[in-house]
Amino acid sequence: METKDSNGNTLSEGDSVTVIKTLKVKGMAADIKQGTAVKNIRLTDDPKAIEGKVNGTILVLKTEFLKKKS
């Protein structure tokens, strides 16, 4: 199973991605702003989700809101 970003690019362990839409996260004081970089991602069992560190917090993000950095 392949994990793909919003543009259809294949994601792999250690890639860097950018958030394409401001996301509200339950339990966090601040939103994740559009353009935020998430480095060194990890793949999950779900091909539509990745794990990454944002502002010091590890979160699971849906790939439909992410774009692979070139």
From TrEMBL:
Pfam families: YjdM. Residues 4-69 form the Protein YjdM C-terminal domain. PANTHER family: PROTEIN YJDM, PROTEIN YJDM-RELATED. This is Alkylphosphonate utilization protein.
